[in-house]
Amino acid sequence: MSKIHPAAVVDPQAELGADVEVGPFAYVGPHVRVGDGCTLAPRVTLLGPAEFGTRNVFYPGCVLGGAPQDLKYRGGPTGLVVGAENIFREHVTVHRGTEVDRQSGGITRIGSHNLIMVGVHVAHDNQLGDNIIIANAVQLAGHIRIEDRVVIGGASAMHHFVTVGRHAYIAGSTRVCHDVPPFVKVIGYDQEVRGLNAEGLRRWRMPDESIGKLKEAARLLFARRGVRTALRTADALRQIEANGLVADEHVRYLVDFLKRKMEIGVFGRAREHYRSDRAEDLDGFYRREEKE
Question: Which domains occur in the chain, in start order?
Answer without folding.
Answer: 62-280 (2.160.10.10)
